[in-house]
Amino acid sequence: MGSSGNGVVGGGGGNGVVDKGVDFAQYFCTYAFLYHQKEMLCDRVRMDAYYNAIFKNKHHFQGKTVLDVGTGSGILAIWSAQAGARKVYAVEATKMSEHARTLVKANNLQNVVEVIEGSMEEVVLPEKVDVIISEWMGYFLLRESMFDSVICARDRWLKPTGIMYPSHARIWVAPIRSGLVDKKENDYEEAMDDWRSFVNETKNYYGVDMSVLTKPFEEEQNKYYLQTSIWNNLHPHQVIGTAAVVKEIDCLTASVDDIRQFTSTFFSSVTFESRLCGFGGWFDVHFRGRVENPAQQEIELTTAPSIDNGTHWGQQVFLLQPSVQVSEGTDLNISFSMSRSKDYHRLMVVEFGCDIRHSSGTMLPPIKKSFYIE
Amino acid sequence: MGSSGNGVVGGGGGNGVVDKGVDFAQYFCTYAFLYHQKEMLCDRVRMDAYYNAIFKNKHHFQGKTVLDVGTGSGILAIWSAQAGARKVYAVEATKMSEHARTLVKANNLQNVVEVIEGSMEEVVLPEKVDVIISEWMGYFLLRESMFDSVICARDRWLKPTGIMYPSHARIWVAPIRSGLVDKKENDYEEAMDDWRSFVNETKNYYGVDMSVLTKPFEEEQNKYYLQTSIWNNLHPHQVIGTAAVVKEIDCLTASVDDIRQFTSTFFSSVTFESRLCGFGGWFDVHFRGRVENPAQQEIELTTAPSIDNGTHWGQQVFLLQPSVQVSEGTDLNISFSMSRSKDYHRLMVVEFGCDIRHSSGTMLPPIKKSFYIE
């Protein structure tokens, strides 16, 4: 579930894991609001994907036990029960669990679906399960680090023959063009102009020279406008070069170490003359079952740039300022790395490197830039 | 300092006091941003009031020791030093203290101003002080409950003959008219219409009946749109009846118990025919010194509705829906009470009662409504 939350980093331990109270105040709490749940329930692409994944693969559910990690309103647990599950454990950390329980009863499924309020890391189930289903994906897949809780659930509660819903996930990156680069650059320049006036006035009018704070203010504004990933709904025409997978996750076997930090290098060929304004990132997940017990119908949920099938996740935009003129055939050698914020494990730091070689053979100076996913 | 922060309540102890990590994540952290400090430094009414309070009362500062509670960028500490203080202790809980220290040095006051990073409740000063200066006021004066920290500072560090800057504070309430009532009512109705479509679609398309959640959703939306105080810049013409002070604070003697919870009843006479849409609330503070050592020039900082002298605090609007037609001479018997949210001591719950007697003598049914200050 993508949620912008409040984006503020709290102090954490060395690994960025904050204490439970802080984690609740900064992360979990927004999910306790029905308004927020509704936003996700209104995402048709998301809903259709999970609905079809379940109901076109009833053999995975009929007579089986299911664990829904982060049940929210209870929708996936309810569908699992309607698809024939014998028993569904629906775990939810927030008071939304009370609404889930109400909803289960109103849909006459209280004999199948047991809603449990608690964190996945702490709840104790009476048995292991055949299926773990969860909608855990944050912006750019891993923001919010909810998959950690799914891994925990899997390691504690999934039978050796059990299945993950979704079974696979991928993070994609592509070079893009975007008007945001000019907008954010303008916003930044305006903020700096405004600051300079402010420094003048404060000196002349109030006798305090604040010019020594110009540099830290500039850094703060630059970080905000130009070094923080931006939620955006990209048009497919904004993708100007071949996209690539920078991370693949097998949900049955991935560990937290696999996703905590990783790098990827790939080539992207520019497909038409344009300005390289940065990179767009998105993800997809698949419902394939497992080799020993595959899906009858594989379902894909993709958040790639789309005209008609956008999702509430949008895509993430990482801006390069200044933008760079590129033409068809320009080669981009892109390196990508992602790691967790040292202050808060649910937020990320991303680094892009980009070597640009025009089709003439000219190499541009290499680009390297870090971004915060707040 | 008024800050909308993120308005999210965290779980707290019985008295709503949350643990330090949560308090930092929900409250203090926004003050670590220069952008936020600048917003307050650009509030000319605020700046002028403190500047004049200090520089027109230099006798309170010359050769004296000063404590600035919550120094932020350091501005009040710097002015205190420029007004002739012998020593200024500038306490700041966030990393903004580092910028304050830089600013002090850049203005050649490092021999007078000592910036200390820490919470007022914990820092240890080498001596008691002659003056405690602080800009602690939140929306509607007490939101953020920062005055608790000023009281703590006063009780620990102010000399028996010491002075508080500001010395007094008052909360005001008046009946108002406002287009917000229609706007919020429309927003609420739209949200409910949207919800009803959502319930239909989810039932028809996805086989899950969510109608049992309509009532809690309605409550959540009603709370959000109509039961939460709204920041607004009121025009003086929106005040339709006599305003009254609902709380007076002597900063030299007030205790936390005095401000934690209080009630007030007053009469307000409607001054012209209009719709009573609710109540507006604001505050003022005064710099009067103390009886034994008064200000040479008393300064007032008011956040009353104003055409030219608005502040970043605005006013708070508490909407009554439906609004009530009233005419000149209608008497309003208003009761007001404020207490702290049981979940978070920095947020408030306010209750208004209103008995309306038209000049004809007709009494309307009494109104009673609670609001959250988030």
UniProtKB/TrEMBL annotation, chains A, B:
InterPro entries: Arg_MeTrfase, PRMT_dom, SAM-dependent_MTases_sf. It comes from the Eukaryota. PROSITE patterns: SAM_MT_PRMT (PS51678). Its EC number is 2.1.1.319. Residues 185-348 form the Protein arginine N-methyltransferase domain. One of its GO terms (molecular function) is protein-arginine omega-N asymmetric methyltransferase activity. Keywords: Methyltransferase, S-adenosyl-L-methionine, Transferase. One of its GO terms (biological process) is methylation. GO terms for cellular component: nucleus. It catalyses: L-arginyl-[protein] + 2 S-adenosyl-L-methionine = N(omega),N(omega)-dimethyl-L-arginyl-[protein] + 2 S-adenosyl-L-homocysteine + 2 H(+). Ring-like homodimer. This is Protein arginine N-methyltransferase PRMT10. It comes from Rubroshorea leprosula.
